[in-house]
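SEQUENCE-TO-STRUCTURE ENTRY
===========================

Subject: a protein chain together with a token-level encoding of how that chain folds.

Sequence line: the amino acid chain in single-letter code, read from start to end.

Question of interest: how does this chain fold, as expressed in backbone structure tokens?
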Amino acid sequence: MEGDCLSCMKYLMFLFNFFIFLGGACLLGLGIWVIVDPTGFREIVAANPLLFTGAYIMLAMGAMLFLLGFLGCCGAIRENKCLLLFFFMFILLIFLAELSAAILAFIFRENLTREFFTKELKKHYLRNNDTDVFSSTWNSVMITFACCGVNGPEDFEAVPLLPYSPSESATPEACCQRKLQSREGVFVNKEACLTGVERFQNRQGCYTVILNSFETYVYLAGALAIGVLAIELFAMIFAMCLFRGIQ
């Protein structure tokens, strides 16, 4: 009976580690895609140090989970106590790091409000100055998602014009409609857009557009994160049970 229980535990351990292995492979693939994607997302990530760091953290976490899942599978099948102990210690560290990140994300969630982004845009945006990281990032976002400001073009009425461009329009070029949504895309009618003709402007705010675009993925990511934490917890329990059961 004890042998059957140990055998069952071993294969359950293998199963959970196989899911960790797949989750790590997905994170690794997603991290690589974010960094090398040529459709404009890479430009946004590269322009923002926080996003740039986050992409590499995701890449590192994916690689670590990929490796640990592989080690856990080997430790379970071969009944190797050293591999099982190594797996348990590292999966525990990852589990605690992910739990801490989730708690911090919950605590600082108020920094993702519409009001926060509007305040930051009006305070730091320098219009078409692409040497400024903040402005370049916002311009890339507006071009990529065909949107304007946080709430709409009216956000830029409070943004001062650059001192060397007194004739500059209140609406930045990034808000003008393009035939192709990229920096190389041809404007539909740039002059009319900058003089205030609404039908040549992207009128919808980026907050709503991005929220609608990623709403499904946010819930999916949240559910996936909870699933990963649960799998890691069960994997640690099975690892310790298997470790103690191996003679």
About this structure: Helices lie at 2-36, 41-47, 49-78, 81-107, 114-124, 133-145, 190-194, 206-245. The two ends are 16 Å apart (CA to CA). The mean pLDDT is 77. The domain at 114-204 is CATH 1.10.1450 (Cd81 Antigen, Extracellular Domain; Chain: A).
